[in-house]
Design goal:
α3 crosses α9 and α4 packs across α8. The chain is α+β, with helices and mostly antiparallel strands.
């Protein structure tokens, strides 16, 4: 009995390869409608099979080195709408933008609020990703991640009233703004030339400092915002030019880690086959124990 299936996919990545026996074949990353991705191999080689092309695929489920993949027996080029196949945030972008604007409105410092309003003018908030992989690596991921940090900043400021809420909120909303220039957000999420050469921390800091100059920031505010952006990865081995030496900078680093780690872990959990006791490896090479316990609400 044949286990072959037929489904429509969009090609996100395509690589030409040659087997040890000299046979040409192709490796693919295929997206099904809704954005779920699949690794696939096809033992034919066609130049027409490239990123952005839609294909009807005859395949059967297979695995390679313990990881699931599709073994393709036939492909036929067809038509489709990219937006329906690209991975994207599960949340409503318009509602997230509205909530983020509400946090900007809650900032009482006139200069910090003006800086944030300038940042919100960028239309790329609607599509920009937060990473090429690991956490929030899909369209709208940067907005989702930034909003989560604004929420965390607001809650932590309630719990610790000595924190300068306006400064922390400004850092939470601006800390990753350089990612809009660091990465593309098209068929593939990939690094730009400036992203590879400089990285989002330097790109974002320079962009924010240019705005601060336009808004006639005083030197103290300029230094503080600059420091929060430069130090939000914590240490040099994680990409930060400086470690946090301001209380709000340390808090920003901590809440950024919370959301990034949860995003990475839930991404792995969501793509793990149902019924497995342990997940695939997360970025730090750890398999998560899934178990059977559920919190009953």
């Amino acid at each position: 009995m044949s286990n072959k299936q037929l489904k429509k996919f969009m090609i996100q990545q395509a690589t030409h390869a040659t087997s040890g026996k000299g046979m040409k074949y192709m490796r693919f990353k295929l997206l099904e409608e809704g954005g779920k991705s699949h690794q696939a191999t096809f033992f034919e080689d066609h130049d027409a099979l490239k990123p952005g092309v839609f294909v009807d695929v005859m395949y059967e489920d297979d695995s390679f080195n313990g990881e699931p993949q599709l073994k393709v027996s036939a492909m036929r080029v067809t038509e489709g709408s990219p937006e329906a196949y690209l991975p994207h945030t599960p949340y409503n972008v318009g509602k997230m933008l509205s909530e983020l604007r509400g946090f900007v409105d809650s900032v009482t410092d006139r200069l910090f609020q003006a800086l944030l309003l300038k940042a919100l003018e960028d239309e790329r908030w609607q599509r920009a990703a937060a990473a090429t992989q690991i956490h929030h690596s899909y369209l709208g991921g940067l907005l989702e991640h930034t909003l989560n940090l604004a929420r965390l900043a607001s809650k932590v400021s309630e719990l610790y009233p000595r924190l300068r809420r306006d400064l922390l909120m400004t850092g939470a909303i601006l800390h990753d703004i350089g990612k809009m220039d660091e990465m593309t957000s098209g068929i593939n999420i990939d690094y730009t030339a400036v992203g590879n050469l400089e990285g989002h921390i330097i790109i974002g800091r320079d962009r924010v400092i240019a705005w601060a100059k336009e808004l006639s920031f005083d030197e103290e505010r300029r230094r503080l915002v600059s420091h929060l952006i430069l130090s939000h990865h914590g240490q040099g081995q994680f990409g930060s030019p400086k470690p946090p030496i301001v209380v709000e900078a340390q808090v920003l680093c901590d809440i950024d880690g919370i959301d990034a780690h949860l995003g990475a872990m839930y991404a792995v959990i969501d793509r793990t086959t149902a019924g497995r006791e342990f997940s695939d490896k997360v970025k730090w090479e750890t398999r998560l124990y899934l178990g059977t316990y559920e919190d009953k609400k």
